[in-house]
Design brief:
Blueprint lengths: L6 E2 L1 H9 L3 E13 L2 E11 L6 E4 L10 E4 H10 L14 E4 L10
Parallel strand pairs: 1-4
Antiparallel strand pairs: 2-3, 2-6, 3-4, 3-5
Amino acid sequence: MDESPNVVTEDSLRDLLGNGYLMDVLCKQGAEKRHNSWYGSWVIRAISADGGSEKMLVTSRSVLKQREFKTIVGLVSFLADMGCKTASIPLEQGARERHIAPGRPLCTA
């Protein structure tokens, strides 16, 4: 079975995080507050520690549809499920915020 090398599913992302990968949260559509909730569009990228490999989080390898989060609550829940102890959410389109797996130092170039 051919697999796209630049995509990752949720289960595969967990494995990558355990092997030193980082997560970037990318804001695709600027956030806006409606009543008591924040809405926008965010996607997740798995980034190798050296920055040489970037994989897009997809819903499944067979469909290759990018997993998109429409609320901050949904995004924070996902990050917590991945083991993040904090969440930094970009609110402006095009902005990125990096997240690390617990116990792993942030790599700097």
